[in-house]
């Protein structure tokens, strides 16, 4: 019975098409429509990573040239104390090399400064220092920088290295620090962030409104949540709580136009996307005729994908929390093996990846 249901569900969803709208040029880079309706900012997720290798200077520069108000990237630290912009703890997935970043030297004969991306155009891995230098160029000093702090890091070591780079610039406290947003997954990183980078705004990155409320509400002014997590009834309540509490909401990773329109209806503050041009074109069209463009996008997709159903959301949040706790320790009370086993079994059966 369950297998027949799953097969019928996949057949239904595969028959549905997604509407895509391309706006006329030139773009209108505004934050409100003609009738003063606010629209979300555009931040490039790992840069303009739909078109360029993720987390590279070329990707960051492309997002900025597109008109994005911010860029997002991830940080790890090499064996010789160089902060590098990279998502995975291991080099294998996106480069021509392999090995854990924390076990590799940046400089030297086999240094990571010689590594190139597997995706063309083949690019070097940028450092945090190089990325900050890009953002401090005169034409880029309006751009915000969301630093996704991976839990494989030692927060004290990482934040100390980041502070040395940030504070090396003249007038850094007014020209740079206010533009940096620390993205934290694990509550154990809050203390070191407040102690060593007190001038940086803090956000929680996650996919569980309940975790956000319990562990991060008092210490973060921004909540960067997965798109799916905000589609549930609890996600709606959380959005309302953020609005009432003066908290900003960012949503990731939003690449489909109908998902972007849903985020607009939610009145989030920032859309994090790999496809910066797609959101900026759509936003420009909304500025021109909000009602006409909005009418072209339905909410039907919320009922045609398992990703937006409560069991999936629970499984995904449980597995993600378990993976964080395996690396950085329990949030408070560690998830029970029974919870993790049940979630893992159901996820395997449904083909869900955490």
TrEMBL record:
Protein name in UniProt: GP-PDE domain-containing protein
GO MF term set: phosphoric diester hydrolase activity
GO terms for biological process, alphabetical: lipid metabolic process
Species of origin: Mycena indigotica
Location of the GP-PDE domain: 40-283
InterPro entries in UniProt: GP_PDE_dom (IPR030395), PLC-like_Pdiesterase_TIM-brl (IPR017946)
Lineage: Eukaryota, Fungi, Dikarya, Basidiomycota, Agaricomycotina
């Amino acid at each position: 019975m369950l297998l027949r249901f799953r097969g019928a569900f996949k057949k239904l969803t595969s028959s549905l098409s997604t509407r895509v709208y391309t706006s006329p040029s030139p773009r209108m880079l505004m934050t409100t429509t003609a009738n003063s309706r606010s629209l979300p900012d555009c931040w490039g997720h790992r840069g303009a990573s739909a078109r360029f290798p993720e987390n590279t200077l070329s990707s960051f520069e492309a997002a900025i040239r597109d008109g994005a108000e911010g860029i997002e990237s991830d940080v790890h630290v090499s064996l010789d104390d160089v902060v590098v912009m990279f998502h995975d703890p291991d080099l294998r997935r996106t480069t021509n090399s392999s090995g854990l970043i924390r076990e590799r030297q940046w400089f030297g004969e086999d240094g990571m400064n010689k590594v190139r991306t597997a995706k063309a155009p083949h690019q070097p891995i940028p450092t945090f220092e190089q990325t900050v230098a890009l953002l401090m160029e005169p034409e880029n000093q309006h751009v915000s920088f969301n630093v996704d702090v991976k839990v494989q890091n030692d927060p004290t070591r990482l934040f100390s290295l980041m502070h040395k780079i940030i504070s090396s610039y003249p007038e850094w406290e007014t020209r740079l620090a206010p533009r940096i947003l620390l993205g934290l997954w694990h509550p154990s990183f809050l203390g070191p962030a407040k102690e060593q980078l007190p001038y940086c705004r803090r956000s929680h990155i996650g996919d569980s409104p309940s975790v956000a409320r319990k562990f991060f509400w008092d210490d973060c002014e921004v909540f960067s949540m997965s798109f799916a997590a905000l589609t549930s009834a609890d996600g709606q309540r959380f959005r309302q709580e953020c609005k009432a509490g003066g908290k900003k909401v960012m949503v990731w990773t939003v690449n489909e136009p109908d998902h972007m329109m849903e985020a607009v209806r939610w009145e989030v503050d920032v859309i994090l996307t790999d496809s910066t041009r797609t959101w900026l074109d759509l936003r420009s069209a909304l500025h021109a005729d909000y009602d006409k463009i909005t009418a072209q996008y339905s909410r039907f997709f919320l009922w045609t994908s398992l990703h937006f159903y409560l069991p999936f959301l629970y499984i995904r949040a449980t597995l993600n929390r378990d993976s964080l706790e395996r690396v950085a320790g329990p949030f408070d009370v560690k998830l029970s093996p029974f919870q993790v086993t049940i979630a893992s079994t159901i996820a395997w059966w449904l083909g869900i990846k955490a």
